[in-house]
Amino acid sequence: MVEEKKRGRREGTKTAAETREAELANWVPKTALGKSVLAGKITSLEEIFNSNQPILEPEIVDYLMPMEEKMVEFRKTTRVVRAGRKFSFRVAVLVGNKNGFVGIGTAKDDDKWPAIKKATKKAKLNLVKVRRGCGSWECTCGTGHSVPFKVSGKNASVKVTFLPAPKGTGLVAGEAVKDVLLFAGVTDVWTKVKGATDTRLNFLKAAIDALKKTTKMKVSNAIEKKGEKRA
After folding, report:
1. How far apart are CA 139 and CA 103, in angstroms?
2. In what order do the strands lie in the sheet with 84-96?
3. DSSP assignment letter at 198
4. Can you state the angle between helices 175-184 and 200-212, rounded to 10 degrees?
5. Could you tell me the fold of the domain covering 151-215?
6. Is 30 helix (H, G, I), strand (E, B) or coil?
7. CA-to-CA distance for 184 and 205, rounded, in angstroms?
8. Where are the domains of the chain?
9. Overall CATH class of domain 1-65
10. Cα(123)–Cα(107) distance, rounded to whole angstroms?
11. Residue-wise pLDDT tens digits, 81-121
12. For residues 61 and 63, what is the distance between their CA atoms, to the nearest angstrom?
């Protein structure tokens, strides 16, 4: 009798992959981008980022490229109301495919699991495309194992700087930043950090802000002035 109950419990529980497949099977897109993805007109996340279209549905990411997920911060918060103390949970979730895409999301809820689910959805909507390369003068392998050039990111009082490193160096960074780099697919880098690094969430967001800048193009003042004259 006990074995039958255990077997029934195992059969009744679904894995995260099975739950995701069930949600995608019942997915009805609400945006034009979602409809294009479901119709097969868009087949990769690269196409979306190259066309600068905002992702407003987390199912788009699940449909095109399943992401790995990791809870990087979990806190129980307290708010004082008339009836007394009200507890809630704040969760931060990191997602990435370890091949050029990474994102982070935060959410609050009265219960733990709904907060995690909300944070995961937000992380998928906040995906960042990371350009990788071999920007170190000590390495000429030409593969995308590091950052292509020096980049810095900032969030609140925390500033994170990534420097290109030769192949085999590894991730010379703190544990919090290592998660971000691994989920982005960067395996070799040197790191400089300034500010209140004990605030883990600011630390993570600063790291993602730095990686985001690897795909941004700087426009010189001369080009900007020339464009203004033509206009």
Report:
1. 28
2. 68-81, 84-96, 101-109, 128-129
3. T
4. 30
5. Ribosomal Protein S5; domain 2 (3.30.230)
6. coil
7. 13
8. 1-65, 151-215
9. alpha beta
10. 10
11. 787 888 899 999 999 999 999 999 999 998 999 999 999 99
12. 5
